[in-house]
Amino acid sequence: MLPPGIEPAELAWREGVPESVRFGDVYFNRDNGLEETRHVFLRHNNLPERFASVAQGGHFVIAENGFGTGLNFLAAWQAWQNHGPAHQATLHFVSVERFPLIREDLTRALALWPELHPMARELIRKYPPLVRGVHRLVLAQGRVRLTLCFGDIADAWQSLDFLADAWFMDGFAPARNPSMWLDETIDQVRAHSKPGTTLATFTSVGRVRRALAAAGFDVRKTPGFGRKRDMLRGVLPADGQTEANRPGSIAIIGAGIAGCTLARNLAERGVPVTLIDSANGPGTEASGNVQGAMYVKLGVEFNDQTELALQALTFAQRFYETWRGEYWHPTGLLQLAQTAQEADRQHRFLRRNLYPREVLYPVNREQASELSGVPTESGGLWFPGNGWLEPKRLCQALADHPMITHAWGVNVDRLLPCSGKWHISGADGTTIVADRVVICAGHLSAGLIPVKGKFRLKSIRGQVTHLPKTGLRNPRVVICGNRYMNPALGQIAVTGATFDLHDANPLTTSESHQENIRELTAMLPAVLKRKDAEKLDTSNLDGRVAFRSTTHDYQPVAGPVFNGQDDELEDLFLLTGLGSKGLTYAPLLAEYLADRLTGQPACLSAKLARRLETRRLYQTDVVIS
């Protein structure tokens, strides 16, 4: 199968119970699969008691060998709901599946358990498209996080960064699916465990027991469920167990889309945050536009860069659903094959890649015109889950949380490490002290990094144009090519933006408006009513200038700041370089940084995390100031 698609499970339904055609085995016990899950995995990992003892702002991590129908996950979620702490804490569930169920089969399988219906409905609604890689689902308003990897189990356990508190060693029986139970796989179970980690499995096969014992687990047989006589339970001896790392106080500099999504993410995990900005509120710089399109341009080759963009895209679609109809408008997005060069690129893209239709599919000229409501000159790629946002209002909503303290009007001019903390100084004499700091200051970020030497960050001017709705054939969807065009909001629609690499002018210009109009009409000749196009006076148009922050390789950066020598600073982080795709990348990168700041399982594989490192931006070997 072409990337990034992955083969779905092929099911046979016998007496209402799903079986795997490939492995010839049932997904759960025919008599009572939910009770078997509770007996084998919940009780023998002592989960109800352990859930209740999770600390404020803490987390509990369960890892599982095979996601299947998600029954084990939903049972754990239900137990967390019933027995977890009343205060803010997070249940993380990490699972892998080589042959994932399609949404229709998942729905049918989980319908067997009415008591799980509310949770199953949310899982099904947020179930990711069937593409290879890691998918992070944020559920139960952030109290439950599912890291679901579609791919080979060996690859998953080698590339994911997490330590489990408990293991559900599920999957089909060892005789049916031996690769799930290889010694190398069990060694990875040990590598992702810490002192005191427990495990349970329905099987009692001798070679599995011996492999677990050889890996260091104290393993015992115990009565199984129903007609199954025995199962296994185990624990990794707790000698040398240490306290969990706490995030401490966190300050975020910059209240654009990156800073606001990160602040909200941490706050919902129970971590107090101070959000700092030189303006009098959030969403004033590059995130202050009236409208913004949420899209990416996926590469012809499915490499790491394309995979990161795809994961950001699908995560953002799920993330913004909370604000559907308020600040998020999922109208769909049309990426036009505007030029011969772009048409050729899209042709090669479709020939080399297989994407589910819920992500994208090709449309011809007639279909593009019908979808958009505007006559188009070409077909293109249709992204049904994309749309447009109101960035400023979204930032304001994200920053409104009781765990977020606002420090508006603070123009940060210095970061100084002192006595194990960071002292953040404002030009007006304000001082804020925090254990950890994240710089999210967009094009101003480079000037705040307290490391001698140059970080390859640059600023690019972008001007958008506000077009009066009365002069438009208003599109129903977002249309992208050399410019983007949004459906009108109130009496205006936003188009743009210019890409002015060596222009520091903060004011709108008639020339930039003319450039936007020229490129827009080349892309969509019919979008402006002809009489208005001829009379349009760009000197009277409104618009806005903002400065994008990007890197030398036009890829974002998220992680600890490289110290200019041979290591990274443990308590100073950078999140910037999102360029024109900030609305797409910010939610996933905020999730990833929040994972790192709290010591929770990472939502990105190791290879994608490496693409975000700050080390690649640094140019010379120098010492910290």
From TrEMBL:
It comes from the Bacteria. Coiled coil: none annotated. Residues 114-236 form the MnmC-like methyltransferase domain. Keywords: Cytoplasm, FAD, Flavoprotein, Methyltransferase, Multifunctional enzyme, Oxidoreductase, S-adenosyl-L-methionine, Transferase, tRNA processing. Its cofactor is FAD. It catalyses: 5-aminomethyl-2-thiouridine(34) in tRNA + S-adenosyl-L-methionine = 5-methylaminomethyl-2-thiouridine(34) in tRNA + S-adenosyl-L-homocysteine + H(+). Residues 250-596 form the FAD dependent oxidoreductase domain. It is found in: Cytoplasm. In the N-terminal section; belongs to the methyltransferase superfamily. tRNA (mnm(5)s(2)U34)-methyltransferase family. In the C-terminal section; belongs to the DAO family. HAMAP family: MnmC (MF_01102). Its EC number is 2.1.1.61, 1.5.-.-. Catalyzes the last two steps in the biosynthesis of 5-methylaminomethyl-2-thiouridine (mnm(5)s(2)U) at the wobble position (U34) in tRNA. Catalyzes the FAD-dependent demodification of cmnm(5)s(2)U34 to nm(5)s(2)U34, followed by the transfer of a methyl group from S-adenosyl-L-methionine to nm(5)s(2)U34, to form mnm(5)s(2)U34. Residues 1-237 are annotated as: tRNA (mnm(5)s(2)U34)-methyltransferase. Residues 253-625 are annotated as: FAD-dependent cmnm(5)s(2)U34 oxidoreductase. This is tRNA 5-methylaminomethyl-2-thiouridine biosynthesis bifunctional protein MnmC. It comes from Marinobacter metalliresistant.
